[in-house]
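Recap from last week: sequence in, structure out.
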Amino acid sequence: MSTVMGDQDRHSIDALLQGAEPETSQVRRWVAAVVRQPGWRIADREAVVQGIMLRLIEICRAGRFRGASSFRTFALTIARNTCIDVHRRESLRGRTEIAEPVDRIASDLSNPEMSYLEEERVELLRYIVQKLSAECRRLWVWVYQERQSARAVGERLGISEGSVRGRVHRCLSRARRIAGEFIARPA
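Predicted structure tokens:
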């Protein structure tokens, strides 16, 4: 095997580091093909693709690609190993129980109106939680009940802080949409 990097590999790496569109898209397609293979237990495949792309860029910037194989083989190996790690984490996480984030909230029995409003609020929250996906319920437990930071949740899921914030935002948007459906339904 040659340890000298070929011209094509050097061109691919330089283009990736500069963000050149055709070459970056090609590397992304290589990575996405591995991530989208059936059999991986990966909830957010796009986040994994993004993470792998960032890792490849970091490796290339640090000059750690030595050229012992083609850059394509190297990228596919990084993608496969990352998918194995994510798959293992999510499989393990899928076997653990999570508590429902909505518990019965004590009402002020001395004020009947407040008690009624609290009952309506609890009913709305239960409806929303039932309609949300298991992933959203799990995120809510970690972020709102356990008060974990986006960084901690990201490390737990193997994704970036920004991805965690995006997921929480999408879950909140779904919850608002579900709440609107609940409120608009006939009595």
